[in-house]
Every structure is written in C-alpha cells, then in structure tokens.
Amino acid sequence: MIAKRSVAFCLGCFGLTLTSYSVVIAQHKLTLPKYDFSYLDRKINGWVDSGYYNGASILIAKNDQVIYQKQYGNYKPETVEYIASAGKWLAAATIAAVVEEGKLSWNDQVNKWLPEFKDVKGNATLRQLLSHTAGYPDYQPKGLPADSYQTLTASVAHILNLPADTLPGTKFKYGGLAMQVAGRMAELATGKDWETIFQEKLGQPLEMKSTHFVPVDHTPGHNPMLGGGARTCLKDFANFLNMVSNNGVYQGKRILSLQSLQELEGDQVKNAKVFAGEYVENARATKRKDIYGLGEWREEVNAHGVATLISSPGWAGAYPWVDKKNHVYGFFMSRIKEMKNGFNSFYASPVLPYLVRDVLTQVAHPELKHGYITTPDKARLYYEELGKGVPLIFLHGHSFDRTEWDPQFFALAKKYRVIRYDLRGYGWSSMPSEVQKALHADDLLALMDQLKISKAHLVGLSLGGFIVSDFLALHQDRLWSATIASSDFFKVNGPSQPWTKEEWESQSLKIKAWQQKGAALKKREWFNALTIRNGQPVENLRQPIWTMISKWDAWQPQHHEPRFLLGNDLEPKLKAQAITVPVLFLTGDADAGHKNKLLEAIPSAKQVFVKNAGHVSNLENPKDFNKKIQAFLKSVH
Q1: How far is residue 374's CA from residue 147's CA, in Å, rounded to a whole number?
Q2: Exposed (0-12), middle (13-18) or buried (19+): which is 20, by Cβ within 10 Å?
Q3: Measured distance CA(547)–CA(283) in Å, rounded
Q4: How far lies 447's CA from each of 432, 487, 562, in Å?
Q5: DSSP letters for 220-259
Q6: How many CB atoms lie within 10 A of CB 10?
Q7: d(CA 264, CA 274)
Q8: N or C: which end of the chain has fewer CB within 10 A?
Q9: Please, where are the H alpha helices in 389-538?
C-alpha cells in the first residue's frame, strides 16, 4: 500500500484526471468515500453555459487526497491562466521565506531599504504593506498609467511621489501598489529580482513549473506584478495549497515554518479602521474586523480568533481556499468573459467551500439515505432520509434549502423516519420551467408516492408552510398532522389565474432591475431583511441563513415564476371541506402581534409560540422549536 501523501503527489505533479486517480486508488487498494459533487458540477457548468466564462477548472482535496478534479469549456488540465489577486497569497508567502532567512523583518520600515521614501509612506512596515494597512493608494490614480511595469524598480519609482492616503496602520484599504514596495524591499535584501526570488523560495520547491510573475501583462486586471500579475495552472496552485494545509511542509520537505504561516494567517489588520462593504462582510455576512492576514483573507475564524477558512480570490473568478476545519483545500481557476445578468465573478466563487461542506456532511453520515425522485413532469428532487418510525417530512423556506432543518433533522430522527428535500428550484433539485403546471404540493405528493409513504407528518416554514397549507387543502387524507410555521394565506394569483400580458411585462421589468443591481447585492438585501429585527442583527441567524442564501441560484426573481402555490385559490378550497387533520401553527413570539387569517380559517388548529424567536424560529431558537414540535407530534399519536 502506498501512503496517502504519495497519491496526492501523483495527482498534484501530473494533473491526473479523476478517472486515472480512481485507477491509482484501485491499484493500491485505497478506498475513498463516494462523494457526490453533482450540484457543484451543475453550478460551474451553469456559469460556463451562461457565457460568464469560456472555461474553468477545479481541484478539491481532503486529507491530502484529491476527491474531485474537472475541467469545463475550453480548459484543459495544463491550461495556464492569469489569477489576479489570487497571486497575492503567493507573493506574501515568498516574502515570508525571505523573512525566515533573516534578510528582512516584518517590522522593517520602507525607508530602511528605500531611503528615498522621505514622507509618511516611508514609515510603513513590511507587515503593513502586505496587509493593506500601509496608508498607500490602492492603485495608480485615474489619468496615470497603470502599474504594468516589467520591473519593481520602475514600479516603485512611480509610487514614490504619490501622496499617502493616510497614516500607516490606521485604515484597511485593499489594493496592489503597497505590495510592489514590499517586493522591491525583498529584491534589495536578497540582491535578486522578484521572479528569481519566487522561483527559488516557492516555484521550484513546490514544482510550480507553469507559475510566473513576469513578464507583466498589460491587460487591465493582470497587474501590478505582485498584487495581480501571477499566472499559473491548476496543479501548480494546488501544490501551494497542499503546502499551506500541511503547515508548511510539501512532500516531506519544509518550505515555510509554522511561525511564518501563523504570521501570514494571523490578524494583521489589528486596530486599523475597516470600512463597511469589504470582501469578508459581503462574502461571509460577518461584521468582524480581523479580516486579513498577509496576502490572504481570513474568511472564517474560530472562537479564539484563529483563521479556519483562508483564501485569496481574484476579481476575475480565480478562487483558492483552505478549509482547516474540514482538512480541505481547493482551487477554482477561470477568467471572466462577461459580467452580465447580475453575475459577479469575485462574489460568485466563494460559494464553493459551502458546496463542498454539504458533500462532506453527506459522507459523514453513512446512515443517511439520500437520492433523487423523478416527478411526472421529469423534474428531479433531491431528498435525504434518516431514522425509523412514522414519516415526518420537513419543507424549507424561500431562498433556503434542506439544510435549514439541520437542528431538527438529526434530533427528531431518533424517534421518526425523517425526510427533508430541496424544493424544485432550490438546492440540489431541478430548476423549474416558466411554463410548468406542477405545484409544489404535486412535487410533495410525488415524493411521498415514490418513497412509499401513505401518510406523514408535515412541517413547513414560510414557503414550506405555504406548501403544507396547499397539501392540507388538496390531500389531507395523506396526512397525520400539519405544522405550519411563520406562514399565513399567501395573497398571490393561483393556478386559476394565468399570467396576463401586463403582469408578464411588469415582471420582465422587475427581472431587468434585479439583474442590474446584481445578484450579490440583492442577496445581501434579502439576507438583511431576514436577519435584522428592530434595527439590530439577530446574530445566531446570520451564518446559517447566509450560507443558504449564498448557495441559492436565485432562479425565482430572475424568471416569470409559474403558479407553484394555490395562492388565492387556497381559501375557497379550505372552506369547501372540513379539516379533520391536527394542525399546529408555530409562531415566533416576536411576531405574536400578527393576526393570522389562515389560522382563523382552520377552527380546529391551535397556535403555539416559540420563545425568543422571529420568522425563522427553527434556527433562532431550535431548542424551543423542537420541544414544541415534539410535544405536538406526541399528542397526535
């Protein structure tokens, strides 16, 4: 048997495909879990098919073993691409190697090596130059040539006379010019040019044969040299990430010390002011200020402030990351062809760690039954099932997916046969068609039929609650009980009221306006609406809700949505029959003042309030939500 690290080495050096990797595994009797990357694959294919990229490639490794690798469009394993700001990580790591030799110090001031910097810019330290806190302008001012100079000597000469933005250490301002000065300091300290330093410290030891910083390309977005000029291929950058994830060791050889990595990954923003709207706030929905190290973003940190998800995304789509909690690293390589329909390459790629984590969660629970059912109109619905006993089905809210029910799914599986699934148009399930006729309730019926469930308890929140209401009106004979959380009558046209020409044209204008604002901004607006109450953020909702909204394909606001729900057709259907199924309305106590007309339409229903919770009560107070659900289910049986 060969070592796990050797398998990773074979892939990293020779760019083996997933098929050839499977052969290696088989030959050496190594077994890997079966990872389902079909949704991640669909996501990237969608980006390419939509014309955002001409091609792309991705490599994902866990515990030093490549678990997924694929090329899309016109990309091949050996494709070399400019990676913009993803190269900042390489640049900072290269300088760390020079610091290790004792030729530089992180606290060296610019004027020690470049005495011509006689203004306040000369007081900035090497540490501040690489953490965007040096007070330098981010890029050359408008009207001056871009920094596409072929040498750092020329670049620094054109930075010298620029006015400082602020005092060193006082503000975080992401950019590229300060890193040029850091690179020039390394050149002076070693007596070598930047490309030679990089090749000696990282390129050659990590076998990054296709990775270079020169010649600098004049294309906008491919410069300056350190901050935006690197080009690489998939396997090269994966070798670098392998080293980072192994605490500075690559193939048994130490490349960087643990102390250097701690410097690179530590909080280097310190007391500098961080303005609203920086990358980590937008990509991870956090107001933290300790967002940057040296050449890399600290996307997530643990309770002790130690970075657990680090990255260095490029504006054009390149996204390398290391997920320390899950022992995963990955590299998505591409270059934007056209930003359209609200797509933003810088904020699209950071969804990838979330998608990988969903796959890992699935693998971590071998007892979990999962798969797809096919509806009569050929849609595929992804479901997960756990536990034994009376069936209990959970239906998630709009812009969410099945993972909304994590706090309930695993807890209640101890007593019930629990099923959760992605609604059509969400998560891993099929996207809808604008002309489809099927209701969400029809999809639920198909799911129950194919899973051979004659009767079930239903629990739905928000959109999921609308579906439970529809199913109650259409198929109460298939129910043991119905729990409707944070839901009322949904006052929209139902199937009996087709789209009019005027409505269609109005929606077309709304779609255009949504896309002009952009998916990233519109998602953040929706996220804020769900997680801010009385002007204050609900902290324990932010991470789980943003994770789901980030993954959401946002099909609904960008299309003429078919009549998925009964809408205005629901009330007459309910009134035309006697509801004999036990019905529970679960409401967060923050919404206790809301008069629920649906509740009034079902006289036998009862309402219970979840303490210290609002609209998304199952996530805001899962303990009390679960307590109320279990008490109700127990009363039914």
Answers
A1: 55
A2: middle
A3: 10
A4: 16, 22, 20
A5: TTS-SHHHH--EEEHHHHHHHHHHHHTTTEETTEESS-HH
A6: 16
A7: 19
A8: N
A9: 406-412, 440-450, 463-475, 501-517, 519-531
pLDDT tier at 33, thresholds 50, 70, 90: confident
Burial level of 223, CB count in 10 A (0-12/13-18/19+)?
buried
- Least confident residue range of 25-39, 362-376, 416-430: 25-39
Residue in this structure with the two tokens 């990430």, named with its chain if needed: 241
Give the 3-state DSSP-derived string for 505-537, with helices as H, strands as E and coil as C.
HHHHHHHHHHHHHCHHHHHHHHHHHHHEECCEE
Within a 10 A sphere around the Cβ of 534, how many other Cβ atoms? 7
Strands 606-610 and 583-588: parallel
Give the DSSP letter of residue 405: G
In three-state secondary structure terms, 636 is helix
Q: What does the DSSP assignment read for 294-360? A: SSSEEEEE-TTS-EEEEE---TTS-EEEEEGGGTEEEEEEEEES---TT--HHHHGGGHHHHHHHHH
Q: Alpha carbon 195 to chain centroid distance?
A: 33
SS (H, E, C) 124-165: CEHHHHCCCCCCCCCCCCCCCCCCCCCCHHHHHHCCCCCCCC
CA dihedral 459, 463, 467, 469 (to 10 degrees): 80
pLDDT on residue 60: 98
User: Residue 8 — φ and ψ, nearest 5°?
Assistant: -60, -35
* DSSP secondary structure of 30-56: --------HHHHHHHHHHHHTTSEEEE
Enter the pTM of the model.
Answer: 0.91
Q: Are 278 and 262 in contact (CB under 8 A)?
A: no
For residues 150 and 215, the answer to whether their CB atoms sit within 8 Å is yes
Distances, alpha carbon 254 to alpha carbons 2, 97, 251, in Å: 21, 11, 8
Under 8 Å between Cβ of 519 and 351: no
Q: Contact, 461 vs 530, CB < 8 A? A: no
Q: What pLDDT is stored for residue 28 in this prediction?
A: 42
